[in-house]
Write a structure and sequence with these properties.
317 residues; alpha/beta; Rossmann fold; seven-stranded mixed sheet; five-stranded parallel sheet; 9 helices; 31% helix
Length: 317
Amino acid sequence: MDKLAVFTGNAHPELAADICKALKIKLSEAFVGRFSEGEIRIKIDDNVRGKDVFVVQPTCPPTNDNLMELLIMIDALKRASAARITAVIPYFGYARQDRKDQPRVPITAKLVANLLTVSGANRVLTMDLHAGQIQGFFDIPVDHLFAVGVIIEYLEKLKLKNLVIVSPDVGGIKMARAYAKRMGAGLAIIDKRRVSPEKAEAMHIMGEVAGKDVIIVDDLIATGSSLIEAVIALKKAKANSIRAAVSHGVLSGPARERIDQCNELKELIITDSIPVTNHKKHPKIRVLSIAKLLGEAITRIHREESISCLFDNINRI
């Protein structure tokens, strides 16, 4: 492990520190600041020549700043003769524009993939992409992890009975099926219609939820409008208790206010893929750590071992 080095920018230093704690190594040092006019300034303080380097940097808000820090740090490490550079991106920003669903719109997920490759990244380690096909946008290896194991470990401690896993839309059915199969639970889908990029209306529920303990599973929550619509629809369908398990808690705009005001939502379970300092003490929000999962993946990549055991369960469903 003496050839292993882990760096971080300003996006999520707490997660990087927790990963290093799991790896039992010291977080490598780098200066990540700004010039007087606001340009990003980076200097690698540790020797990385010939080392296997991992840069932990979710591209969460402020997305542009965090993405540029990641790109510039990768460039600095490449020029410092690192043997291999892996971009560890627990939350992959700009992923929602992954296709041309309207005339004259960009495919930002592909653009970011190109930027990472050109900057000098040799591989990418990420978790719960908004769309799995984003892996195909890269010309370098991508290891795609899932938070399902971490979240299920917590859900099993709740010992819920008559459990039903709910997908908030048709696109999330694969994730919901993975949860349902692992937990031996029922499965339901909410048919919704999106009226704008920030707003969706729940239509009707396919599956039996009356009198059941319901878990809504999704990859991310931004403003929370879709989640609250789903909760209201499930409550009208006479669900017993309603929880939500979401991999990435972006919680932008009025999200926290909506969660506070939604009495029907018993608990929101998220991971620390992005900084969650403001949410740790929230009575309705439970934050689960993915540091051990990422640490295990980093160890296996460094040792040239297979990491399929960390995500095979969902890919085979």
